[in-house]
């Protein structure tokens, strides 16, 4: 069967699912669109996004009023929003979150790019686990600013100020937007920066590193 015939049949099927008042999805340049329940769409989105490598970043904050140790978590959504006139970054996390509570209380946090699988696993540990405080003590060298210890597997750090007016709850998550106050590479055990380290990625349920660059033709 010719491609055009497939297209005609699929378009007809798609049109049949449209409710009264809905526009034809092909009018917006979409090749195929079928109605589905929200849970099916969510599963499809999850499956599709698992194919995309996401950089892993540790977020650490401390509630200055509580006197408790710093708290942190691993995110795969950290990214820049804009660089000019002021650098802003964003990430999202699921609520409720003790780390987000600490961010709101202190108005600040530190983001660190991860290069080591064990460091990533440490910050996936349940906050109620017996080893959690031990993990935080072994990884965080600066309780106030959330910097990680030398040689723990982080590449760079960004000190950020939370902007409440720009952050937005969405469903059971919140999009955190923050101004970058300072940023630099961590030093290695030899005192030199480790800018040559490869950032850790996560895709298809596994930890990964970026492969070699692809030469442009």
Tell me what you see in this structure.
This protein is an alpha+beta fold and 217 residues long. The protein contains 5 helices and 13 strands. It has helices at 3-16, 38-49, 98-106, 117-122, 132-139; strands at 54-55, 57-61, 71-75, 79-82, 88-94, 108-114, 140-142, 147-148, 154-162, 168-170, 173-185, 200-203, 206-209. Mean pLDDT is 81; it is low at 1-21 and 26-32.
List the helices and strands and how they pair.
Blueprint: H1 3-16, H2 38-49, E1 54-55, E2 57-61, E3 71-75, E4 79-82, E5 88-94, H3 98-106, E6 108-114, H4 117-122, H5 132-139, E7 140-142, E8 147-148, E9 154-162, E10 168-170, E11 173-185, E12 200-203, E13 206-209
Antiparallel strand pairs: 1-12, 2-3, 2-6, 4-5, 5-11, 6-9, 7-8, 9-11, 10-11, 12-13
Quick structural gist:
The protein has 217 residues and is an alpha+beta fold. 23% of the residues lie in helices and 31% in strands. A hairpin with a 2-residue loop joins β10 and β11 (173-185).
Please describe the structure with a list of short key phrases separated by commas or semicolons:
single chain, 217 residues, alpha+beta, 3-stranded antiparallel sheet, 13 strands, disordered N terminus
Residue stretches low in confidence (pLDDT < 50, at least 5 long) are: 1-21, 26-32
Total number of helices:
5
Mean pLDDT: 81
* DSSP strand count: 13
Q: Note the beta-strand portion.
A: 25-35%
Q: Pairing-aware structural class of the strands and helices?
A: alpha+beta
Largest sheet: 8 strands, antiparallel
Distance between the termini: 35 Å
What would you call the shape?
globular
- SSE string, helices as H and strands as E: HHEEEEEHEHHEEEEEEE
What is the rounded Rg? 22 Å
Query: Helicity, in percent?
Result: 10-25%
């Amino acid at each position: 069967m010719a491609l055009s015939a497939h297209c005609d049949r699929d378009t007809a099927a798609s049109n049949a699912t449209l409710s009264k008042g809905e526009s034809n999805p092909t009018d917006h340049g979409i090749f195929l669109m079928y109605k589905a329940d929200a849970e099916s769409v969510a599963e499809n989105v999850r499956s599709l996004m698992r194919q995309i490598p996401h950089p892993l970043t540790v977020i650490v904050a401390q509630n200055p009023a509580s006197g408790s140790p710093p708290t942190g978590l691993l995110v795969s959504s950290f990214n820049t929003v804009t660089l000019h006139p002021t650098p802003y970054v964003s990430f999202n996390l699921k609520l409720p979150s003790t780390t987000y509570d600490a961010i709101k209380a202190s108005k600040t946090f530190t983001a660190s790019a991860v290069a080591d699988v064990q460091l990533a696993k440490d910050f996936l540990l349940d906050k109620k686990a017996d080893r959690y405080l031990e993990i935080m003590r072994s990884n965080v060298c600066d309780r106030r600013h959330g910097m990680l210890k030398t040689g723990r597997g982080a590449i760079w750090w960004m000190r950020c100020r939370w902007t409440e007016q720009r952050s937005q709850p969405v469903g059971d998550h919140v999009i955190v937007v923050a101004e970058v106050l300072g940023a630099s590479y961590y030093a290695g055990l030899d005192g030199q920066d480790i800018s040559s380290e490869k950032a850790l990625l996560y895709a298809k349920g596994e930890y990964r590193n970026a492969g070699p660059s692809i030469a442009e033709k």
